[in-house]
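Researcher: I need the complex structure. Ligand is adenosine-5'-diphosphate. Inputs:
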Amino acid sequence: MLGLMQNWPLTCNKILDHAATYHGNREVVSRLVEGPITRISYKDLRGRALQVAKRLEHDGIVFGDRCATLAWNTARHMEVWYGLLGIGAIYHTVNPRLFPDQIAWILNHAEDRFLFVDLTFLPIVEKIRDQLTTIEKIIVLTDAEHLPEAGLSVIAYEEWLAETDSDFAWKAFDENTAAGICYTSGTTGNPKGVVYSHRSNVLHAMAALQVDMLGLSSRDRVLPVVPLFHANGWSLAFSAPMAGAGLVMPGARMDGEAIWELLDTEKVTFTAAVPTVWLMLLDYLERTGKALPYLERVVIGGSACPRAMTEKFETNYDVRVIHAWGMTEMSPLGSVCTLKPEYADLEGEARLDIQEKQGHPPFTIEMKVTDDDGVERPWDGKTFGRLKVRGPAVTSSYFKGEGGEVLDEDGFFDTGDVAHIDAHGYMQITDRAKDVIKSGGEWISTIDLENIAVGHPEVAEAAAIGVAHPKWDERPLLVIVPREGTNPTREDLLAFMQGKIAKWWMPDDVVIVSEIPHTATGKIKKTALRESFSNYQLPTI
Ligand code: ADP
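Model: Output:
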C-alpha cells in the first residue's frame, strides 16, 4: 500500500519561490566587485532569476547543460544559480584560486557552455581562453559601463539580461535531476566533480536548518563569507532563503576591516567561514578595539577551529562559536558542535574540550569509524579510525565515474578523515588518513600536535608531518612559522608540548620556517611539505 500524499518534487526553485512569497521584503545585500553596496529583496531577486532563466533558454541553454561561474558571493551570482536551476541546467561553481591550467581542465571536463565571470577573474580567463574547448559565451557580471576593454569577446551581464523580461515559469522536472557541480580541490591527481541533485540540495538545506545544526530563522541576517564556490557554499544560498533569513554578500573583500564593516552596518547575526578569515577579523578587532554588538553566531569549519579562537569569540566578543565539519562530497554539512543536554552545563576548559570536537550529525547523516579492514571501532571518544558516512546528500560516485567505486558494501563513503566518536555521538577529527603519522604500528594525530603547537604565543602556524625512521617507520617532525617579531626555538616548543601529549607523540624535531605552502582552499599542503622534508635527517636516527 502506498501513502496518499502529493508528489511535490523537491526542486531548488521552490526555495526561492517560498522566500519571495513569504519573506518577499527580506533583502540580499551585496558588496559589488565594482565597489558599491546594493540591496535587492527576495521578491525582486526571484524576478531577476526568472529573467536569467528566460534569457538562457532564448540563448539555447537546455535541460542538462552545464554553465560555470567564476565569481564572488553577490546577489548576481545567486540569480545566475537560481536561473540555471529553474530550467534544469546545472550551476558549476569554479574555485578561482586553483591554478589556471586546472581551471581550464575543470571547465572542459564539465563541458560548460557559458561562463559567468566577475571582473576580478577576467585576467585568468584571458590566460586560458585558448584552452577552453566548450565555452561559447563569456558573460561578465557587471554592466556595460564597467566592462573593460578585454582581449576577449565578452558580454556585459546587465545588458544581456535587459534584453529579456521576467515573464517566465520555472520548468518542471524530476527532483533527482542534477542541480550543481563542485570539483574537489584534488591535492593529488585531477579534481573530481561532485554532482548535487535538486533533491539532495533541498534535503541538505532542511537538515542544515535544524536548530542543533545551523538553526537559521527569518530574524537572522546571514553573512556567508565562505564563497559559493567552496563546497556548495555550505548550503547558505539555499538554507537562508528557505528560512526567510536575509543575506549579506561580501563580494571580493574578505579582509578583517571589510568583514567587520558589513557585520556592523548590516547588523549581521550569523556568519560562516574558514578559520583563516576569522584570524584576520580577530586581528582587526584587537588592533582597533572594535566590538561585535550584533553578531550572535559564527560557524567555523573547513579545517579545525583552534581552541583559542573559540575562546576569543565567546569570551571577548560574546559570539557563540559553531564548529562544523563537512566536505564537498557531503553537500557539505557532516556534523556541527552544538551542545546537547549531556554537555550543555559545562564551563571553562571542559566546555572548550567539547567545542574542539567537530560535533554530531544532523538527521540525514549516518556515521561510523572503522579500522583498515572495515571493522567498526567503539564509540569511546578515543579509539580512532577511518570516518565513513552515508545519507541522501552524500555522493554515491564522481562525475563521469572518475575515481571508480567510492562506497563500501553497506553504502558508506570513506571521507578520508580519521576520527573518533564519543558515547554521545560527538565526532572528533584527528587527521586526514593520508597525513596520519604511523609510528611503530600506532597512529599519531597530526591535528592534535598542530593544535597544541599553535597554542604557543609565538607560533603563527604549525604543521606536523611524518618523516621516515628506520626503527619506527615514521616519526613526527613539527614545522612552524613564528609570529611576526618573535623568535621561538626548538627547545621552547618541545618544552611547551611536554606533558600535553603522550611521550611517544612528542615530535622528534622542530623546524622553524618563514612560510608553509597552502592549497587553493587555504589548507596546509602536506604533500608539498612532506616532499620538501623527505630527506630530513631526524636527530633521533
Ligand atoms: P577543500 O579541500 O576544497 O576545502 P572540502 O571542503 O571538501 O574541500 O574539504 C573537506 C575536508 O576538510 C574534510 O574532509 C576535512 O579533512 C577538512 N575539514 C573540514 N571541516 C573541518 C573541521 N571542522 N575540522 C577539521 N577538518 C575539517
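Model: Summary of the prediction. The chain has a mean pLDDT of 95.
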